[in-house]
Structures are given as C-alpha cells and as structure tokens.
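Quarterly update from the structural biology core.
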Amino acid sequence: MSRAPEFLPLSDAAVRAVAGANSRHAALIEDAFGVLLETPGGGVSLSGDARSRNAAKKAVQAIAERADQGLEIGEADVRVAIGQARAGRASTTQGAGGSLPVGRRGQVAPKTPTQAKYIEALAQCELVFGLGPAGTGKTFLAVAHGAGMLLRGAVDRLIVSRPAVEAGERLGFLPGDLTEKVDPYMAPVWEALTDILGAEQLRRRREKGEIEVAPIAFLRGRTLSHAFVIVDEAQNASRAQMKMVLTRLGEGARMAVTGDPTQIDLPNPTDSGLAHAVGLLEGVKGVGVVRFGSEDVVRHPLVERIVRAYDADAAKHGRTV
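Predicted structure, tokenized:
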C-alpha cells in the first residue's frame, strides 16, 4: 500500500483544533491510527498506509467540522471522533440534533450520534427517557436543553429532581436545614447548571424560583405546568415514585427522565420504576426513548473501558448489574 502523504486543506481554526495544545490532539490521532500527522500550513498532512490514513482522515474531518462551527474542541471530542472513525462511522452529530445555544457556553453540541438523537428527541417529544452508563451526557444535555428553553421563555421554570439517599429519601438523618440536607445529593445537577449558566445567573434564577432542584418526594401533590422537568438517577426511583412523578406533568410542561438501569441502588432492584416505565411507555405517542452505550462515554477514556468490562462480565454471568 502507498505510504505517500495525503494533504487535507483545512481552516486555521480546524488546524488548531486537530493539533491541540502542545500537539496533544495530534498525538492522540497518531497513536490511534499509526500515522504521522503534520501541520505544514493551510491544512493537515497524514502519512501512513492507505487504510490507516483513511481512518485518521475521518477523525480529522469530524474534528474540523466541529471547529468550523465555532465549537470548542477538547480531548473528549477527539477521542469520540477517533472511536467513530475506528468503527467506520462518519461524523453524524451535526444536522440531526443540532446544537443547544445556552448561557455562557454559547453552544452545547452533541459529541456522538446518540447524543444528537437525544437532543432531537428532547426537542420533539413531551417525555424523553435517556438510558445508559455514566459519562454519556444524559443529564448534562437534558439540563442544557432545559436551560435553553428557560432562557428563550419557552418554559417558566426548570425543575430537576432525583431520588435521595439510595431512593429512600431519608433526609431527616442529615444535619442542617432543608437546603443543606438536599444539596449534597444534587451536587452533579448544580455543577451542570453552573457550567451552563454561570454561578451568578444561576443564583438569580434560583432566588426568583425559576430553577428548582429537589428530591422526588417534594414533587408529590404538585402539578408542574409550563416547566421543563428532569428526573435524574431515575433507576433509583420506585415504581410508585415513577408513576407519581410522570403524572405531575401539567399544561405546557415537558420532561426528561435519565438513568442507568444497571446501577440500581434499591434494596429490591425489581422495584425500579425506570425500566418498568420504559417498558410500558415506549412507543406511546409523545414519548421518546434513547439508549446510550459505552461508545458514547465522553469522560476519561478509562471510563469507557470500565463500562465495557462490566458489560462483558454481566453478559458472561447473565447479570444485569
């Protein structure tokens, strides 16, 4: 096979994104495909056998496409592009789900085809279930979508709820007032909201009651109208809790339910309301179900390998957890 270099003309922004700080991104691409990546000016040069160049080219083009749209490129984006190129998939994250123009980040864009499908479902369906392992962006993208709706005035409130203390919600055992009891269990949600909106805007909207984060128990008896509601860690909601929260939807409201069915902390895993609800509602008009896999993990690359190892062990022994 020919080893003649192949030159890909790219914009300056795309070249910088492909190279990365201290050529870190270029090194990841070179290690992944066994190629030599150089930036002689005006583009990228790839040296190696034809098969390796073609695979690396797909990854480079995916990164360049995102960079040309003004999106920030991090190592997670590069790893996802590499994974998709290895699997023989071209970049399909744009055009399907688009990006979410929210807050100080400017745009939150999907990093994988499944994330794009998820964003599309959030835009089209009144109720969306996002299922899959940690690190796939289920909660973050739902929060970004909800924050975007709030900023556009499409909803009056953003409400995020999750089961607390292994779904038992035994908050009385913790010291402090209600906020001090609840906040430790809501930390991942607060972090996502701060990242998207910024601390000051989050504080203002929280004080005005436009953003509410609370355990599932605090939704009982309420009708949630003109709100975007996120139920996070829903695998730890019981069947009764899940029915209760799903029936809170009022006029002009939408809901995203996220969770990992393999990470149930309930004493009786069969009581989990997440898989039960999906089984009942998948295919119902207005309901979308999006399933993420280990290939959608966008945290540390080791997380994907950990998820794959656990999945393989579960399949080997016929377990689901």
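Confidence is low (pLDDT under 50) at residues 92-97, 165-169, 171-178.
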